[in-house]
What we know:
The chain has 90 residues and is mainly alpha-helical. It is built from two helices and no strands.
Amino acid sequence: MDGQGATADPQLQHFIEIESQKQRFQQLVHQMTEVCWEKCMDKPGPKLDSKTEMCFVNCVERFIDTSQFILNRLEQTQRGRGAFSESMSD
């Protein structure tokens, strides 16, 4: 081996990152749909009544808020660990 394979093509890395984000988004939408359907849908019918529609809106908004909170918290935790490990190596 000549070692050139170790540095990946930046365009390929970018493509993989975007595809990973798409996959995470699709999983999130699937999970959110499942949670909110279970919570809000009493009996399926040809049309949503206003109560069910409002339940879906609130459920989706809370799901997004919660997901965003968790992501922010994970980022803070990772930054904190990075700063901690850097100070330990000084």
